[in-house]
Amino acid sequence: MLSSGVWAGAFERDYAYGRTDRDGKRFGNELERIGYRGPLRCEPQDWKCHFEMHIEQGPVLEAEGKVIGVVTGGQGIRWFDVTITGKESHSGSTPMPTRKDALVAAAKAVAAMDEIARRHPPHAVVTVGDIRIARPSRNVIPGEVWLSVDVRHPEAAVIDAIEAEVRETVAAACARDGLPHKVDRIWDSPPVAFDAGCVAAVRRAAEESGHPWREMISGPGHDSFYTARCIPTSMIFIPCRDGLSHNEEEWTEPEHLEAGANVLLRAVLEMAGA
Fold it and tell me: What pLDDT, on a 0 to 100 scale, did the predictor assign at position 274?
């Protein structure tokens, strides 16, 4: 969503060019290396509307025997970096009462965040997808731990409440041993409501196709979240086996790809002729 964010004005171009991966490679440099840093400006054009077809990236369509998801909007997403600072010391000679173990506090926080999401059913999800010890060693008490936190919900007020609980949870996890900590919000993508006209076009296309369908909210983020800020937008979901995504076993049946493409075509033709 980095490039669509530049397109929609959410990010500055130079911010995008300056992003680096874990190996220190800059986005702008890599675009140049593969010949993709072209001369055209990344900005909205005179477009009537935008449609995007995508696998669901979840299990709902498959579980319900539906072929088409009419996507009405997307969940809000907030990302946080959490850093907990303890004190490195030898595992054999440091008594338990005097330890400043950053990983123990992080573990408490991670377990509590799972409970936070479960207190806000059915849509709330909280995920810790990356955790790192600054200088890991078998016989050293972890002195600093960093972890990522991903929070999602279709209502901004609920995301606000979850963020407050995440911050309180980290503080509580660090309280016993008096560990310094910080919770930095690094990204905020607010909930998205797609254009009613585009959604209606997809709904009619799904009905005309004869395939079973349902309306749904997108949990994952998509480029359409940003295009929706500038032009009328909607999405079409199709099933994926076992709901798998971002996984080498990801799979979509060819007939579902065909069905989704035909629904996309019907919606585009309707909007083009409107």
Answer: 65
CA 225, CA 247: separation in Å to the nearest integer?
23
Q: Which stretch of 8-12, 88-92, 156-160 has the lowest confidence by average pLDDT?
A: 8-12
Nearest-angstrom CA–CA distance, 101 and 103: 6
Domain ranges of the chain: 1-43, 47-75+191-273, 77-189
β-sheet bridge partners, residue 238: 55
> Could you check whether the bond before residue 44 is cis, i.e. omega within 30 degrees of 0?
no
The string of pLDDT tens digits covering residues 36-76 is: 998 888 888 889 999 999 999 999 999 999 999 999 999 99
* Secondary element (H or E) of residue 237: strand 233-238
**Chain centroid, CA 74 distance in Å:** 10
Which two three-digit tokens encode residue 82?
């959490």
Helices 102-118, 156-175: inter-axial angle, 10-degree rounding: 150
Which residues have C-beta within 8 Å of that of residue 29, sequence separation ≥ 6?
none
DSSP 8-state symbol, 151 = E
Q: What is the CATH number of domain 47-75+191-273?
A: 3.40.630.10
Q: Are 32 and 154 in contact (CB under 8 A)?
A: no
Phi, psi of 119, rounded to the nearest 5 degrees: -85, -5
Does the predicted model carry a pTM greater than 0.70? Answer: yes
User: Which residue's structure tokens are 């072209």?
Assistant: 38
3-state secondary structure of 93: coil
214 vs 209: CA distance, rounded Å: 13
> Do β-strands 192-193 and 50-55 pair in parallel, antiparallel, or remain unpaired?
unpaired
Q: Yes or no: is domain 77-189 CATH 3.30.70.360?
A: yes
Q: CA distances (Å), 46 to each of 151, 152, 228, in order? A: 34, 32, 14
Question: In the chain, what percentage of residues exceed pLDDT 90?
Answer: 92
Alpha-carbon distance 132 to 146, whole Å?
A: 5
